[in-house]
Amino acid sequence: MPVIKHQEYIKAPIEVCFDLARNVDIHTVTTSHTKERALGGVTSGLMENGDSVTWEAVHLGVKQRLTAKIIEMDRPYQFVDVMVEGAFHSFRHTHTFEVKDKGTVMTDHFDYKSPFGVIGKLADRLFLERYMTDFLVRRAKALKEIAENNYNNR
User: Fold this and answer.
1) Cα–Cα distance, 48 to 88 (Å, whole number)
2) pLDDT for 77-123, tens place per residue?
3) Alpha carbon of 93 to those of 88, 110, 149: distances in Å?
4) Residues facing 97 on adjacent strands
5) Phi-psi category of 77—alpha, beta or left, where left has phi over 0 and alpha has psi -120 to 50?
6) Domains with residue ranges and CATH for the chain
7) CA 149 to CA 137: how far, in whole Å?
8) Which helix (H) or strand (E) holds 145?
9) Where in this chain does the record put each Coenzyme Q-binding protein COQ10 START domain (predicted)?
């Protein structure tokens, strides 16, 4: 099972970063390159523990749907979402937030298993792990930009 870990330092308070990361409307902004939109469950605003959302997006040229559910939340330090239904065999995405140097270190820890056994493992090595890393990094940098622009321009 591949595990992707990415850290992003954000010059904004931990509460701001935490709330932006669980905001469905902000998620669609930070993933606009995949045309992501919420179709079911919580479709706007902040997600809470136990909430789920069904996303539709275009990944690798294919329109896909994925339902994720928040199964743990300790505001403003961590929340965990898991795939309930979708293209992966499974995934667990842990989002952690730590106060550091008058800002926040946001860490994505994405642990996933591809479908299709050996073929899925080959896809991981050839392109999927790199694609998912790029997706998470791009989203983190977009969250950083939103947090810093909104907080530091007050």
Assistant:
1) 23
2) 999 999 999 999 999 999 999 999 999 999 999 999 988 788 878 88
3) 13, 4, 26
4) 106
5) alpha
6) 3-152 (3.30.530.20)
7) 18
8) helix 129-152
9) 10-118
